[in-house]
What does this fold into?
Amino acid sequence: MKKIRVLQFTIAETKGGRTLYTLNNWKYINKEKFQFDFITFNKELDFEQQLLKEGCQVWHISCYPEDNREQFIKEFDAVLEHGYDIIHINTSYWRDTIVEERAKAKGIRKIIIHAHNMGTGTIQSEDKDNEMRKRHFEVRERLTEDLATDYWACSSEAAEWLYGDKISKNRIVLMKTAIDINNFDYDSIDRDKTRKDLGLEKRFVIGNVGKIVYQKNHEFLIHVFYEIRKTIPNAFLLIRGEGALKECIEKQIKELHLEDDVKIMGRTNSLGKIFSAMDLFLMPSRYEGFPAVLVEAQASGLPCIVSDSISKETRITSLVSYKPLILDKWVKETEEIYGQRRERKGMSFELKIAGYDIWNQIQKIENAYMENVK
It folds into this structure.
C-alpha cells in the first residue's frame, strides 16, 4: 500500500510546543499508512539522526521568507518537488502566506493550516511583540478561504487569533492537544525518589515547565515566588526549561538572593517524574494556545494556577485555577493550596474520558489526513 506522504512545516531545535506536538504525532501515527518528512530553519537538530533512522527526511531551509524571499521560494519549491500529498503547516501567527501559496501552486492536494497559539510565540520583548502583532493582523485581514484546504486549531481562542472572521467557523476543526497519559500519571514512588535525588524531601515544590521566553513570563513567576517565600519558608521553585531569556532570569534570581531556593533544569526525558515531585504548578504566561504541559500537569494530579489569558478550555479537571497577573492574587492562592495539604491522586482516567489521550486523538488525525487524499 502506498503511504500518504506528509510534509511537516516546521520543527525546531528547542523541541517546544509545536515541534513536540509534531514529533508526538509521528511517534504514534500508523507508519504503514503515513510517512512524515520535516522542514526546519535550524542548521542542525540534536534529534535529527533519530528521525533519519526512522526513514524521515529533514529538509533544512537557510532563511525565512521575510529575510530573503527569493531564496526561500527557491529552496522551498525544491522540497515540494519531492511529491507530497499533504503539507501540515503548524503556526502561531501570520508573517506571510507564501508557504500556502507555493504549496497550492505546486499542486499539493491537502494544505492544512494549524493554529497553535494566541500570540507571537517566542518574541523576546514587548516592543517586538507589538511589531509582530501588527504584522499578524495586516496579513490576517487579507486571508481568503481558498488559501488552504483545511483549517485546524488547538482551541477556539487560537482559532479566533489566527483566522478571525476570515475563515468560516464551520471550516475550522479543533484538534485536542493530547498526550500519552500513562507517562504522566502520578506515581508516589517516582515522587519520593526524584525529590530525594534533588534534595527536596522537606520542601514545598512549586513547578513551572516551558521555554524561558517573553511569552512564558518567568519574570512575574520569580516575583511571585519571592513573595511566597516570606510566608512559606520551605518553598522551592523548580523550573524546567531553556530559552533566550534564561540569563536574565538567572540574574533576577541572584538579585533577589534566591539561588538556594530556585533550580533551573534543562530538557529531561523524565518529565512525568518531575511532575510527580512537584506540589503545585504555576503558569503565568502572557498568552498560550493550548499548552500540553497543562494537560500533563493535570494528569499528574497537580493543582495549577495559570494566567487568565490562557484558554478556559484547558480546565479539563477541577485542578486548574485562572488568575489575572496581579501579584497578591497568585500569592494568596498559593498559600491557600499550601494550607490544604490534600491527598494527591492522578487524573489519567478523567483525561481519557475527555479525549486527551494520544491514541484517541491520533485516530482523528489519521482520518483527517486520509480525507480527500485516498
